[in-house]
């Protein structure tokens, strides 16, 4: 994995092969952040990265100046890798080991952007549940944005807060906006 832009631009982060992750490709990540660069002031937002894995998205936000990033993942080895890498790079990343759905149900933390990259094989009901909990608990700040990364075979356009999607190879980013 490579950090695409910002203070850590070009830095390669090599995760152990045993981790159960599918990192966002550099091409997809670059496309996503080109879109976000025109919509957000990275230094002024708070981000929650759900199913954070090796932290590809979290590290990209931090590299671009986001001061408040929370990474949530249930896998012990992913959390261990995130902690080690954050310490090595001297980054302020809030790392939480938790099942994402448990975290969403229990947290009162709000964010300007919530990014979720669940396993592509997750049942459609689980993808819908992410959006439902975030909406019901009002976990996004005003004008907040939920982005879910998923396979091109997963269709989320039927969800009422769906706004748009962008496809990069087999990966799709679906954007959801909530009327607050």
Walk me through the structure.
With 180 residues, this protein is an alpha/beta fold. It has helices at 26-37, 56-63, 76-89, 100-106, 124-136, and strands spanning 46-50, 68-73, 93-97, 111-116, 140-151, 162-168, 171-177. It has a 7-stranded mixed β-sheet, with helices on both faces. A hairpin with a 2-residue loop joins β6 and β7 (171-177).
Distance between the termini: 36 Å
Mean pLDDT: 92
Order of helices and strands: HEHEHEHEHEEE
CATH class: Alpha Beta
Task: Note the total helix count.
Answer: 5
CATH superfamily: Vaccinia Virus protein VP39
Strand order of the largest sheet: 3-2-1-4-5-7-6
Q: How many strands appear in the DSSP assignment?
A: 7
Task: Write a brief structural summary.
Helices cover 30% and strands 27% of the residues. It is α/β, with parallel strands linked by helices and 180 residues long.
């Amino acid at each position: 994995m490579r950090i695409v832009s910002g203070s850590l631009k070009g830095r390669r982060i090599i995760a152990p092969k045993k981790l159960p992750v599918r990192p966002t490709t550099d091409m997809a990540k670059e496309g996503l952040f080109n879109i976000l660069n025109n919509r957000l002031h990275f230094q002024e937002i708070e981000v929650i990265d759900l199913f954070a894995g090796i932290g590809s998205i979290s590290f990209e936000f931090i590299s671009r100046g986001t001061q408040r990033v929370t990474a949530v993942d249930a896998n012990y080895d992913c959390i261990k890798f995130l902690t080690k890498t954050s310490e090595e790079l001297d980054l302020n990343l809030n790392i939480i080991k938790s099942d994402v759905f448990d975290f969403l149900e229990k947290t009162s933390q709000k964010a300007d952007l919530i990014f979720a990259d669940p396993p592509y094989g997750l049942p459609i009901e689980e993808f819908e549940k992410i959006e439902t909990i975030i909406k019901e608990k009002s976990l996004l700040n005003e004008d907040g944005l939920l982005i879910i990364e998923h396979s091109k075979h997963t269709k989320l356009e039927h969800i009422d807060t769906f706004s748009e999607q962008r496809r990069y190879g087999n990966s799709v980013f679906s954007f959801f906006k909530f009327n607050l």
